Amino acid sequence: MKIASTSHIDHHCNVCEPRGGCLGMQLLDDPGVSKHLKQAKRISRKGEHVFREGEDADAFYVVRSGSIKSYLVTEDGEEQVLGFYLPGDVFGLDSTELQQRMSSATTLETTSLCRFPHVYLADKAQGSNLLRITAEQMQRDHNLVLMLARKDADGRIASFLDDLACRYWSRGYSASAFLLSMSRQDIGCYLGLAVETVSRTLTRFQECGVLQVNRREVEILDHDTLRKIAGIRLDSASDCSKASGLNSA
Amino acid sequence: MKIASTSHIDHHCNVCEPRGGCLGMQLLDDPGVSKHLKQAKRISRKGEHVFREGEDADAFYVVRSGSIKSYLVTEDGEEQVLGFYLPGDVFGLDSTELQQRMSSATTLETTSLCRFPHVYLADKAQGSNLLRITAEQMQRDHNLVLMLARKDADGRIASFLDDLACRYWSRGYSASAFLLSMSRQDIGCYLGLAVETVSRTLTRFQECGVLQVNRREVEILDHDTLRKIAGIRLDSASDCSKASGLNSA
DNA sequence: CGCTGAATTGACGGCTCTCAATGTCGGTGG
DNA sequence: CCACCGACATTGAGAGCCGTCAATTCAGCG
Fold first, then answer.
1. How many Å apart are CA A81 and CA A70, to the nearest integer?
2. Phi, psi (deg, nearest 5) at residue B219
């Protein structure tokens, strides 16, 4: 049994075998296109970027050898890793054609990649806007991951409420007052928090005048502060932090 | 401005307008198929399941009114919410055709849905196995969410190592010994833990004889225990918990 | 009116973060 | 060859957030 180091390069690529054969052959049976694909193989040294957040998403990739780190940069400049990709793994699909990258990808070592430009897939794989919808879903998943990994209870609750408000707003409803259709239990389960923490946090937000809560009824009184809490705050607190909260008692 | 309650029913459905018009019309321009689609509109009362994990995934859905909760059931029987869906949202795409549902979906209130059977999309939206790949990616995202929301540091590290081992194994490498291509910083960033916590946890695992660590080199000595730690454990501990750990000092 | 389930509130303990110092490895220059 | 340096990793001490347990309140309902 060989020891995994992910760093050697196969000239006879077989990383796609577990998937049922070379992905390039599956997606691109046009010989001319396959030629393009072969030219699209590239090798990067450690620490180089495959793509960065915000760039145009014109392709996705398969790792031939080496390894890849996918990550986001949070508002405070810290990075949030979304996943690691080993030989045979597909990455870059979270942003489909005509979109901008919603994450960055960089090499962890010398890495060989197979590049699949979206434009060459147009005939066989154009899933109307289905792929766009799945990308939206992944966007959400990434946001959730980011919340769970980087935000404290205050940040998660604030983000959750702000997200709900935005989604209602985009549908023509009020962004300030709405009814929660889910229980505290569900919210806690979603945000990785105990029910009691959800309840306590909502109460504290109310005491600070950020919002008004009564059972399932929510009214957001101070969107700006709510959004400030939702952002990752380190020392920028003193807005509505736990230390205070008794100034209205 | 109307107050959002997500509970009223639009007979003239317009929830897809933000997306550029009725999704059914976009995907199914065959009148006969559109007829099928209309028949597929359904109303569910609060607490009813749209689908359950493990069922055949033969369709996805759009929320017309009401709201949906998507969730997983963890090994210890608790549920982990993955997301909430409001009118206009698409859900059920995380499992593509010919697959089994990898999550469950239930209504939070009386809810009206539009159902899109995969079989009717075959002509226009059959993205070869692209959708399957995106579903795999979502599967991973869900696993990450589940880790971040439900597992402590031990469980996350153990899950992380077990996942790496399995992925190397499936590629023909040793599942017991491998080199980490990512730094402690990256691991912590991925698992939502501080670097120090990652380091301390690895050291403790080594002290318990579960694995051998030296910088980037990892050798798993006791896969069973590692997997036991990776599973959510409440009182089933005493394997390698923090209380002990000094028995080899 | 009493029951049931959801929600709130309080006390306590533990896990993990932060801050800080030390140790280790690889590279660089004298 | 060796000293130095920077990046990465380990280890320790203290504090704080949040989960757990438990009691109470409240809304809905027969």
1. 6
2. -130, 125
Q: What is the pTM of this model?
A: 0.83
Cβ within 8 Å, pair A179-B5: yes
To the nearest whole Å, the CA of A238 is away from the closest chain B CA by 24
Interface test with chain A among B2, B60, B81, by most A beta carbons within 10 Å: B81
pLDDT tens digits, one per residue of B171-196: 888 999 999 989 999 999 999 999 99
Chain A residues with beta carbon closer than 8 angstroms to that of B144: 82-83, 145
Fold held by A2-144: Jelly Rolls (2.60.120)
Those residues of chain A that have pLDDT short of 50 are 9-10, 124-125, 232-238, 243-249
Which amino acid is located at B88 in the chain?
A: G
The confidence score (pLDDT) of residue A14 equals 76
Q: Where in chain A is the domain with CATH 1.10.10.10?
A: 151-243
Q: Report the top-level CATH class of A151-243.
A: mainly alpha
Q: Name chain B contacts of A135, Cβ cutoff 8 Å.
A: 134
Taking only residues 223 to 242 of chain A, the set having a beta carbon closer than 8 angstroms to any beta carbon of chain B reads none
pLDDT digits (tens, 9 = 90+) for B56-112: 988 889 888 888 998 988 777 778 889 899 888 889 888 776 678 988 999 998 898
Bridge partners, B211 (sequence order): B220
B23-59 residue pLDDT tens: 766 665 555 555 555 556 778 888 889 999 999 988 8
Nucleotides of C under 7 A from a protein CB: 6-11, 14-20, 25
Which residues does chain A have within 8 Å of residue B79's beta carbon, measured at their own beta carbons? 189
In whole numbers, what is the pLDDT of chain B averaged over residues? 80
